[in-house]
Design brief:
single chain; alpha+beta; 10% helix; 17% strand
Length: 140
């Protein structure tokens, strides 16, 4: 599932022009560092092109970030926390902030992975909250 949501405000994004690294921190395992190649964006059809969700799912990072709505800003399951490099990400829209209100454990550095697009000006570090697991995919 993927695509766009015609009922929400389209965010203003600046795609990266140079390679940068994303470190994904999961609650159960070592950090995964992935180098983003801007010439290959978008990696796939899920989330905004160049979004954290696009990179996690389709870029080869091997991160199975939950995304019940298909990455169209219609749920809060791809909630992540930007631990480092938040200043390099696009500003959240009101629609994204409304969806984040539904996510548990939000903070000032919370974003939806499908809507957060880093511009590549700095490396970033992402924390995937412990509750963000697809229990069906994990066999529970």
């Amino acid at each position: 599932m993927g695509g766009t949501n015609p009922y929400i405000e389209k965010p203003e994004v600046e795609l990266p022009k140079k390679a940068y690294k994303i470190t994904f921190r999961k609650p159960d395992g070592p950090p995964i560092v992935f180098e983003v190649d801007p010439s290959k964006l978008p990696y796939g059809p899920t989330g905004l092109p160049g979004s954290i969700l696009d990179i996690a799912l389709n870029g080869g990072a091997g991160i199975d970030l939950e995304h019940a709505c298909g990455g169209v800003c219609a749920c809060s399951t791809c909630h992540v926390k930007i631990v480092k490099g938040l200043e390099s990400c696009n500003e959240p829209t009101d629609d994204e902030l409304d969806q984040l209100d539904e996510a548990p454990d939000i903070g000032l550095n919370s974003r939806l992975g499908c809507q957060c697009v880093p511009n590549g000006s700095t490396d970033i570090e992402i924390e995937i909250p412990a509750w963000n697991k697809n229990l069906v995919k994990e066999g529970h």
